[in-house]
Specification:
The protein has 284 residues and is of the alpha/beta class. It has a single domain, classed as Rossmann fold (3-Layer(aba) Sandwich), CATH 3.40.50. Helices cover 44% and strands 17% of the residues. It has eleven helices and seven strands. Helix 8 links the parallel strand 4 and strand 5. Helix 1 crosses helix 2, helix 4 packs across helix 10 and helix 7 runs parallel beside helix 8. The longest helix has 19 residues. The chain starts with 10 loop residues before the first helix and ends with a strand.
């Protein structure tokens, strides 16, 4: 039996959990990214959560690949002129501290008060590299988020939205509503998401669903149409990067999965375990 404090208690604990994998990658001599803040952000509880989920202990490569891909897409959008990055459900992400970003870039973190307070306390002696602002908000409050999006859209003409690790905890109706709200803001030109197939969702529920179910936040979102789901909400897929193929490129896959990556297609497959990081463009 795992001790009680090794369990995921709430949505904020998933941020501690994911930070562990960034910390472990950072500590590798051949790290593909460096997050020197991840270890202290995860804390002891984050490590306890990680070791209590054996499946992820053996398969942490998707987290590494997802972070690496998201980093690359953010940097490319910033190079192309993005003036603001809005990180929804930012959790314990430390990109405004660890990435080489322009000082004038506006970086907006939106999340629940508890997780942002924890982050501010841990990082109180560290300085962000860009103009960082934190907004305490429950994204489930549609009225409040609509007001926030309207206000932020007036502050920049070219905005990039990031929702890393968020959508899988929402229903299709909730994702569609969020996507439509984002598309309604004309200056929100691009959106980075991570996406799972129904086949992968089934596997995740079987292998580690109990850990998140007990916290009342089960895995939910994996649309049958894959990235095309977002077209009806005003978003077009501009780039789709398979997670397993990225992990193969980074040499982070177990041997048998290297063989799978060699023979599998990077294209969306509904019934097979498939995941990707996608760049969507606003078509509304």
């Amino acid at each position: 039996m795992n001790p009680p404090d090794s369990q995921i208690r709430n949505i904020s604990d998933t941020a501690r959990w994911v930070a562990v994998y960034r910390a472990r990658e950072t500590e590798r001599p051949d790290a593909v990214f460096r997050d020197p803040f991840a270890r202290k952000l995860a804390g002891e509880h984050g490590e306890q959560i990680a070791v209590s989920i054996p499946f992820m202990e053996k398969n942490s490569w998707p987290m590494v690949a997802r972070t690496w891909l998201t980093d690359r897409l953010i940097m490319e959008q910033v190079r192309q002129g993005a003036e603001m990055v809005i990180n929804l459900a930012a959790g314990l992400d430390a990109r405004p501290y660890r990435m080489e970003l322009p000082r004038a870039l506006q970086w907006i973190e939106v999340d629940l008060p508890e997780i942002l307070a924890h982050k501010e306390e841990i990082l109180r002696d560290d300085k962000p590299v860009c103009a960082l602002e934190r907004v305490r908000l429950d994204l489930a409050d549609a009225s409040a988020r609509h007001e926030l999006f309207s206000e932020l859209s007036r502050r920049a003409k070219r905005v990039l939205v990031v929702t890393e690790g968020l959508l899988i905890y929402l229903t299709e109706e909730e994702v569609a509503a969020l996507a439509s709200d984002l598309a309604a803001a004309e200056s929100f030109q691009h959106w980075i998401i991570d996406l799972a197939s129904p086949g992968l969702l089934r596997m995740m529920k079987k292998k580690m669903g109990g850990a998140v179910d007990r916290a009342g936040m089960p895995f939910k979102f994996a649309p049958q149409s894959g990235p095309e789901f977002f077209a009806r909400c005003g978003w077009k897929s501009e780039e789709i990067h398979s997670t397993i193929h990225a992990a193969a490129k980074l040499n982070r896959l177990p041997f048998f999965l290297r063989l799978v990556a060699k023979i599998s297609s990077p294209d969306f497959q509904s019934n097979r375990p498939w995941s990707a990081v996608c760049l969507l463009a606003n078509q509304a």
